[in-house]
Structures are given as structure tokens and as C-alpha cells.
Amino acid sequence: MAAPLTAEQLALIERVHLDEGTHANFEAGVCAMELVSYLAGEPFSDHPQCVCPVLGAFVRSWNDALPDDERDALLKPLLPRLIGTRGSDALAERRALMAADWLVRVHTPAWLRLAKLNAQADALANLPEITSMAQIPSIRGPIEAAQRDAAAAWDAARTAARTAAWDAAWDAAGDAAWDAAGAAAWDAAGDAAWDAAWAAARDAAWDALNSTRQELQRSAADLVVRMIETREAA
Fold first, then answer.
1. Which of 8, 12, 141, 177 is the most exposed place for a label (fewest CB within 10 A)?
2. Whose CA is closest to 61, among 31, 91, 85?
3. What is residue 29's DSSP assignment?
């Protein structure tokens, strides 16, 4: 557990604006993970050694995909808590499986429901929590079925606006989950979510699409907090 930040460090977080991408030094700009490295007293980098690699992958991807007007509000409250989260490989795998579980049982169903694919959304939301790699083969069927149905819905909605389906949390969860469950869960679930989002754009108003996106961003922030609070097994 990292020591609490000083008042000066907390003030710095409030003052700095987070940018996308990587930077040569603090003066050139700073992304979320670069700011964490600076606060932790490490060499300036977007891969600080004190941070769990799964959490680092999630936040790097999320930082770069978020629009400028949302990045600071969503990420800054999380940054002090990322310091000191690195642990064992087993802890990193538990966190990666949490990201995969969120992608499959929370994120993808949200877009499927917006595309009126409610039965497919329920099939994924009602899967048992993914806590082990041993579960992955047993959940492939529902995920791939949702992928096929979402793809069919998208085929009927090819005139939808591409920007309406954009979702930064999707990229972040996939990057964090890739090592633990990528080939089995991320590919199919990510495709299902993307196709469902585009299909939803055919019928839904922008307000509904944006509401779902914002709801998932808040849910992703809660996921990061839960991953941070997950500790080594006793």
C-alpha cells in the first residue's frame, strides 16, 4: 500500500490536464499513467513499475480513447489509488479476469439491449462470474451466439453513424483482459458489443446511445476501483 499523497501532490493532480498519448517529459504533456509515475517518484513513463500491469493496461487504453472533456473527471480520482497496486502474477490474473467478466456480463449486454437483442443480453448477463480460466470454454457458446446475432443486426444497419457507437471503456477492458481471456472471450464479446452498438444506432436517438456510453464509463470506473481493492489471496 502506497503512502498517502502530500497536499502538494494532490494539488498537482487538480491542476494538470491529462493528454492522450505518450510524452518525452512532464513539460511536453502528461497522460494518466505518466502522472502516476511522476507522483510515485519513478522515472517518467506510462509504465510505472509500482502499478499492476493489468490496471496499467486498462488506464493507458482508457486515457487515450476518452475525449478531452471527459478524461480528467473520470481518471484523476483513480490515480492516487493506482500507486502500489503491483503484486503477484496470480493477483494480476485475477484482475484480468475481472475485466473479462465485466466485458462479457456488463458491457456487451448493455449494447445488446440498446439494439433490442434482449434475449442475447440476458444470456450473457446471467452467465456465472468469470473467476477462472477453466470457465472460458463453457461460456464460448453464449458469447459466440450473441456475436452472430449482433452481426446480423448490424448488417441491417450499415447506414448508422460510426461515431454514435464509439465506446472507450470497450477498448480499455479488452486491453486489460487480453492476456487472461483474450482469444476466448474478448474477441467474440468485443465484436458482439461493437455490432450491437452499430445496430442500435439505426433506431436509437443520440441521447440513448450517449446515455449507454456514459453509463458504461461510470461502470468502468467502478470496475477499476474493484480491481484496485482486490488483494493478494491469503
1. 8
2. 31
3. -
Q: CA 229, 13, 78 angle in degrees (round to 5)?
A: 20
Report the C-alpha dihedral over residues 156, 113, 69, 187, rounded to 10 degrees: -70
Q: Which residues contact 4 (CB under 8 A, 6 or more apart)?
A: 80
Q: What is the pLDDT of residue 140?
A: 78
Nearest to 112 by CA among 1, 189, 219, 223: 189
Task: Report pTM.
Answer: 0.85
- Helix, strand, coil percentages in the chain from 3-state DSSP, rounded to 5: 70, 0, 30
DSSP 21: S
Predicted local distance difference test score (pLDDT) of residue 165: 40
In angstroms, how far is the first alpha carbon of the chain from the final one? Answer: 16
* Domain boundaries of the chain, sorted by first residue: 7-82, 89-229
| Distance between CA atoms of residues 115 and 131, nearest Å | 28
Beta-carbon count within 10 A of 161 CB: 12
**pLDDT tens digits for range 198-207:** 566 555 555 7
